Amino acid sequence: MLSNPVYIGRVIWNRREWLMNPETKRRVPRLRPESDWIITEQLDLRIIPQPLWDRVQQRRKSQSQQTQLGEDQNTYYEERCLAALRDELLTPDAVERIIQKVNRLLAGRQRERQLELERLHRQLATVEDEIANIMKAIKAGILTASTKQALEQAEAERAKLLAGIAMPTTKADKMALLLPRIAERYRTIV
Question: CA 39, CA 81: separation in Å to the nearest integer?
């Protein structure tokens, strides 16, 4: 309402055109150049006196300028706060606490991986025994469809366990390689 010129008797035609967006298949408005606008004065439509309209527009303009100043101040304070946080996070004590925490996390992950490897090796030994027993049965002449199926299942399980044991390095293992440079990496990130 505060920016609609119809209230002072000014009607603007041809302000925008509607174009089809090829991606969404919907019509979207696009503002035309001001030189293409058709502006007519129809004083019988005026419901707000011109001096009042001018004062309101002036006030809106000054408020938008103040808003811009406020946004500049907000940016300044945000930058100050971020700088203070950065300074606090880069103290030698803070860096040392981060290094200790990373070391604890990596040690925990390495313990978990070691326990997992031990479990996989135990399961592999069990599957290897099972395969050996099936092979003894086959050599003894017991070759049935169920024997063949049991051997195929055991061999598939062995392949899965071997893949789990030979799993490539994890992110935690790669992180251990960064430890000598962790302080400088932390400073770079922060």
Answer: 50
Average pLDDT over every residue of 28-39:
90
Residues 6+ apart with CB under 8 A from 99: 179, 182, 183, 186
Question: CA-based Rg of the chain, rounded to a whole angstrom?
Answer: 38
Distance CA 190, CA 89 (A): 8
User: What does the pLDDT look like over 108-163, one tens digit per residue?
Assistant: 888 888 899 999 999 999 999 999 999 998 899 888 888 889 999 999 999 999 98
SS3 at position 46: coil
The answer to pTM > 0.85 is no
- Going by C-alpha positions, the residue among 190, 6, 10, 182 that lies closest to residue 99 is 182
8 A C-beta contact, residue 44 and residue 55: no
3-state secondary structure of 23: coil
**Higher-scoring residue by pLDDT: 108, 86:** 108
From CA 34, how far away is CA 99, in angstroms rounded? 61
Distance in angstroms (rounded) separating the CA atoms of residues 49 and 70? 32
b/e code 37-68 from CB counts within 10 Å (16+ = b): eeeeeeeeeeebeeeebeeeeeeeeeeeeeee
Rounded CA-CA distance 102/183 in Å is: 11
